[in-house]
Amino acid sequence: MTTVLKDRRVALRLPAPTRVLDGVRPVDRYRLQMPGTTGFHEREFMAAGHVVCVIPYDPVRDEVVLIRQFRLAAHVRTGKGEMIEVPAGRVDPGEEAEAAARRELLEETGLVAARLLKGPSVMPSPGSTAEIYHLYVAEVAAGAAAADAGLAHEGEVIRPIPVPALRAISAARRGAFVNGYALMALTWFATKRPKVRRAWATPA
Q1: What is the 3 state secondary structure string of 153-190?
Q2: d(CA 66, CA 87)
Q3: In this structure, are residues 50 and 134 in contact, taking their beta carbons and an 8 Å threshold?
Q4: Which residues are catalytic?
Q5: Band (151; pLDDT cuts 50, 70, 90)
Q6: Residue boundaries of the structural domains of the chain
Q7: Rg (CA), the chain
Q8: Which of 18-22, 156-160, 170-174 has the lowest mean pLDDT?
Q9: Pick the CATH number of 50-199 from 3.90.79.10, 3.30.70.2860, 3.30.70.260, 3.20.20.70
Q10: pTM for this structure?
């Protein structure tokens, strides 16, 4: 019998969680009987929600716009806190994911999307967070990227970096940076870039 390679539902009575940390990224604890086990076990995870991740792509110049931003966790763990990333951020309550993608793109690069292409949705670390991100490719004019971006009231200092698409993909493949969103996004985009470029050959 061939195994179906697809996530599937589980019959599970989920108890109400206990909030063990309340902050920008709250953490909930569940006490439950895990599927296929006996007895009860405790599991905690960050109660995050929906996130958008955007690859700003200029099909005329064949460039993407990456960003450089400080991350405390990366500084603590690797000593390299200024990470190479792609624009990303949380979807606000009541906001559509596509609207959030356009908003985050503008906030973090100063760019406006002429078109958006929806990519896959991914849970980057389901063992520790409920966060799910929705990937988009945005058609942009890379030369119009801001020199500095980010929201000052959120402590963001962001430097947009227009770079040839193949150079960005090559850097991701050789491990030049470790941001998970950027690596997954560029790895996916590497397979889609020729088709996207052909499709966007005519201005929107």
Answers
A1: HHCCCEEEEEEEHHHHHHHHHCCCCCCHHHHHHHHHHH
A2: 7
A3: yes
A4: 154
A5: low
A6: 1-47, 50-199
A7: 19
A8: 156-160
A9: 3.90.79.10
A10: 0.88
